[in-house]
Amino acid sequence: MNITVFCSAAALDDRYTAPARDFARALGERGHTLVWGGSFAGLMGVVADEAKAAGAKLVGISVEMLAHKAYSGADELVTTANLAERKAQLLERADALVVLVGGLGTLDEVTEVLELKKHGLHDKPVVLLDTDGFYDGMRTQLRRMDQEGFLPRPLDELVRFAPDGATALRYAEEAVDGSADDAVSASA
Ligand SMILES: C/C(=C\CNc1ncnc2c1ncn2[C@@H]1O[C@H](COP(=O)(O)O)[C@@H](O)[C@H]1O)CO
């Protein structure tokens, strides 16, 4: 399946890169396709290298303003005109979305896919890999929104938090396989 990954464009230390590598390796070994921002920058490049080495197909969705940062080893590289179009393609091409550690770009991407999911504009699984408690603050904020009536659907339906790469991949696979089963039983 196509797994869109959002993650940092910064160069990070081993505390963050090791779990991201584990996830990317598992993605490749399980025969999935990596869809990502199409850059060699920082953790994005680490994830692409590791997934490729493990046999993944790579689909990069770059953007004109960052074309000079494009990854040269992708099987397919799309260059969009702007960031909004890129986010739309990253979602469109996904069967599931996995969010690794990241900064404002990653935060922008994950909040957009959650907002669209909240409105029922897609129902793709979203999994946050909570490396070293990186997303604890976000989880606390989202839980408060859920408990105090800010969300129209239960938080558990919008996003799952995974403690490690293997679990993140399993959550994504289970959600996609489960929705395939639902489609079969609905048409039976
Ligand atoms: C500005 C510099 C590098 C930025 N290069 C990027 N290349 C491709 N995609 C990017 C880049 N920066 C952000 N993105 C997208 O946002 C996410 C990462 O942003 P974050 O702020 O680092 O979390 C990522 O998922 C991309 O889709 C240095 O010269």
UniProtKB/TrEMBL annotation:
EC number(s) reported in the record: 3.2.2.n1
Transmembrane segments annotated in the record for this chain: none
GO molecular function: cytokinin riboside 5'-monophosphate phosphoribohydrolase activity
InterPro entries reported for this sequence: LOG, LOG_fam
One GO biological process term: cytokinin biosynthetic process
Enzyme class, spelled out: hydrolase
Keywords, comma-separated and alphabetical: Cytokinin biosynthesis, Hydrolase
Catalysed transformations (reactions): N(6)-(dimethylallyl)adenosine 5'-phosphate + H2O = N(6)-dimethylallyladenine + D-ribose 5-phosphate; 9-ribosyl-trans-zeatin 5'-phosphate + H2O = trans-zeatin + D-ribose 5-phosphate
Coiled-coil residues: none
Pfam families: Lysine_decarbox
One cellular component term from this protein's GO annotations in UniProt: cytosol
Annotated family: Belongs to the LOG family.
Protein name from the UniProt record: Cytokinin riboside 5'-monophosphate phosphoribohydrolase
Species per Swiss-Prot/TrEMBL record: Streptacidiphilus pinicola
Phylogenetic lineage: Bacteria, Bacillati, Actinomycetota, Actinomycetes, Kitasatosporales
